[in-house]
Each structure stands twice: as C-alpha cells, then as structure tokens.
Amino acid sequence: MEEEVTQNTSSEITKGNSISVLETKEFTKAMAIGVLADFADGRNTQTEKMAITRDFDLIKNNLNFKLPNKILFDIFHEIKQDLTDFLRKKLHNADIQINATITAEETKAKPRTEQEKFESMAEKNPAIWKLKEALGLDLLF
C-alpha cells in the first residue's frame, strides 16, 4: 500500500491526510494570539477554549502556557498535538513547540478578626481611619 507524497509550492508536504510544514517564518506574539483565537473558535467546550486563551510566554519558537490548575493542564495535553499542528500550519513555522506549566495563583487571605476586617476596609478606603478618629472609636474587641 503506497501513500502518495506531493510537495506543494508553499513548502508543505502532503502525505496521506496529514500535512507537514517545512517553513520557519518568524512570527510575533500578536500573530500567535490571533491564530490561537481561531483555534479556540473551532473547539467545542468552554474549558478547551479557556486552556487555549490563557497567557503564554513566547521565547523564540516556544509557547509556554501558564495554566492555573491541573484540570486545564490535562485538557491542554489532550489537545496539544492538534494545537501544535494548527499553529505550525497557520504561522508557517515547523519549529513551533508548545508547553504548559501550572502556576499557582496568589490568593489573599481573607480577614478573619474584626481588626483584620477593619484594616482591610481601611486599605481600600483610607477615609475610614479619619472616621474612626473623628468618632473616637477603639479597635480593641
């Protein structure tokens, strides 16, 4: 069983149903974001779209996605090959690699005590300190 191999003018090799890109054109982060948006539009689930549209670092031809949790990380790895092929074809660059890392999002501790609650509110609105002083309130509870 022989597969027909043809070379297109755009430096793509067609082998059966798959297409391999041989070019290595330069691209910008803005171009990659546009292609990622196109790929996300073609996806079925919202979680896949969330994984694809996350922030990423572009270092040469490597896109390093920053994902906030393991769920998006697992979904990303399910679609990684399709995404890589899509990026390589649309951006005309065979050297594109994609990776993902889980980055813990910083969470602020919620104020628990009355003192912490007051300080949290005063941080958002400094006029609360003036009000406390004007009314002669004491923060010892």
SSE diagram, text form:
Blueprint: E1 5-7, E2 12-15, E3 18-21, H1 29-41, H2 46-52, E4 56-59, E5 62-67, H3 70-91, E6 97-102, H4 114-124, H5 127-135
Parallel strand pairs: 5-6
Antiparallel strand pairs: 1-2, 2-3, 4-5
Helix pairs in contact: 1-2, 1-3, 2-3
Word description of this protein:
The protein has 141 residues and is of the alpha+beta class. The chain folds into two domains: 5-102, GMP Synthetase, Chain A, domain 3 (2-Layer Sandwich); 108-141, no CATH class. Helix content is 44%, strand content 19%. The chain is built from five helices and six strands, in the order E-E-E-H-H-E-E-H-E-H-H. The protein has helices spanning 29-41, 46-52, 70-91, 114-124, 127-135; strands at residues 5-7, 12-15, 18-21, 56-59, 62-67, 97-102. The chain has a three-stranded antiparallel β-sheet with strand order 1-2-3. It is elongated. Residues 1-18 have low confidence and may be disordered.
Brief descriptors of the model:
141 residues; alpha+beta; GMP Synthetase, Chain A, domain 3; 2 domains; 3-stranded mixed sheet; 5 helices; 19% strand
Quick rundown:
This protein is an alpha+beta fold and 141 residues long. It has helices at 29-41, 46-52, 70-91, 114-124, 127-135; strands spanning 5-7, 12-15, 18-21, 56-59, 62-67, 97-102.
How many domains? The number is 2
* Largest pleated sheet: 3 strands, antiparallel
- Termini separation comes to 84 Å
Number of strands: 6
- Secondary-structure arrangement, i.e. CATH architecture of the largest domain: 2-Layer Sandwich
CATH domain topology of the largest domain: GMP Synthetase, Chain A, domain 3
Q: DSSP helix count? A: 5
Q: Give the radius of gyration.
A: 25 Å
Series of secondary-structure elements, N-terminal to C-terminal: EEEHHEEHEHH
Structural class: alpha+beta
In which range does the helix fraction lie?
40-55%
Name the CATH class of the largest domain.
Answer: Alpha Beta
> What strand line-up does the widest sheet have?
1-2-3
Strand content: 15-25%
- Average pLDDT across residues? 83
Shape: elongated
Low-pLDDT sequence parts: 1-18
